[in-house]
Design brief:
This protein is mainly alpha-helical and 73 residues long. The chain has 5 helices and no strands.
């Protein structure tokens, strides 16, 4: 996947996880520590080091695709 696409997916995934913090934290703790998950959920923007993880979550969980499909008529 190209880098700009990864950033877009990562931004969508983070915003969805932040909107539902409890489930977002649960999902993230499957990949990182609880402290790292909470720090990511509190981040105002996607940290560069989190892009690969969030993009992978978006691809493997099809989360980003589902959200984008609801936004684009």
């Amino acid at each position: 996947m190209r880098e700009p696409e990864c950033w877009v997916i990562a931004e969508v995934v983070l915003s969805v996880l932040q909107a539902d913090r409890r489930n977002g934290e649960y999902l993230l703790t499957q990949y990182v520590s609880t402290a790292e998950a909470r720090a990511l959920l509190n981040a105002p923007r996607v940290p560069a080091e989190a892009v690969p993880l969030l993009a992978d979550i978006g691809r493997t969980r099809r989360l980003a695709l589902a959200i984008l499909q609801t936004l684009v008529p």
